[in-house]
Amino acid sequence: MLKFISHTAKKWLRIVESWSMLEEANLIASKDGLELRAMDPSRAAMVDFSLPAISFDTYECKKGPHRLGLNIEEFTAIMKRISNNDTFTLELTEPSKVELSFLGSLEKIYGLALLDLGDEEFPAPEITTNASITLLTKTFQGILKDAELVSDHLIIEANKLEFILKSSSESKDFSTIIERHHDDIADFKVTNEHRALYNLSYLKEMTKPNINDLLKISFSDGMPIEFSYPVLLGGKLSYYCAPRTEV
User: Fold this and answer.
1) CA angle, corner 50, sides to 83 and 198, nearest 5?
2) Side by side, which strands form the sheet with 185-190?
3) What pTM was estimated for this model as a whole?
4) Helix (H, G, I), strand (E, B) or coil at 206
5) Which sign does the torsion angle of CA 146, 21, 130, 187 carry?
6) What is the C-alpha separation between 32 and 36, in angstroms, rounded?
7) Domain segments of the chain: what residues?
8) CATH 3.70.10.10 given to domain 2-113
């Protein structure tokens, strides 16, 4: 048996939209809450999501864990039918089917068949990062829009005083520097100097969902980058993206 209810349905839509870089994934439900960890089709990026049971208004999970194999595009399309004040309910009604209910001025009920995605599990990445910067999400989103006018990649640098972002092509280049005490910086922890290159399209996907006003960026020289956001009560959403090799 699995059933959970949330009175903050619109926040759930933002969570589901944050998985947009995935085609399919197992949403794993246990007595402790929900987890989703999956790679994008190219296996260059990972989504790592967790939400504790206490985040829900009602959460019942028996005989778990349950693996809900989701087609992300189909699931998102249904979730977009949520209205602002709806109550959202998900219930496992059959071993391979869930029922999604949106209760507002009307009750709308969708049945969704689950995919058999097997029981492959992706371990949580164990990455040591020496630069960690928390800043306004909208600030970083704006920088990505600036950078994509120039190139399809972004160079991210940090030292003990500054956060530096650059992109370049044969005909254009762009750069911006954010000092550690800038008003848009909420936290700044950097040891030494660090530099890495990342695919801009992945970074855009990782900042698209507007999950939280603050974004934490963690990286090191030539290492995968992590974007993390707090989600609801004790939940977490993290993205990981592999670096590109500088030519």
Assistant:
1) 95
2) 66-71, 24-30, 33-39, 45-52, 235-241, 225-231, 214-219, 131-136, 185-190
3) 0.92
4) helix
5) positive
6) 13
7) 2-113, 131-241
8) yes
Residue keyed to tokens 């990972």: 46
Closest CA to 9 of 93, 102, 106: 102
- At 87-130, the pLDDT tens digits run 999 999 999 999 999 999 899 999 999 999 988 788 888 888 99
Q: Give how far the C-alpha of residue 39 lies from the chain's centroid of Cα atoms, to the nearest Å.
A: 12
Counted residue by residue, the chain has a size of 247
Evaluate whether 2-113 and 131-241 have a shared fold: yes
If you search the block for the tokens 């698209």, which residue do you land on? 208
| DSSP run (H or E) holding 118 | none
Number of H helices and E strands in the chain, helices first, is 4, 18
> Which residue is associated with the tokens 């909208």?
138
- Neighbouring C-beta atoms of residue 96, cutoff 10 Å: 12
At the second CATH level, the architecture of 131-241 is Box (3.70)
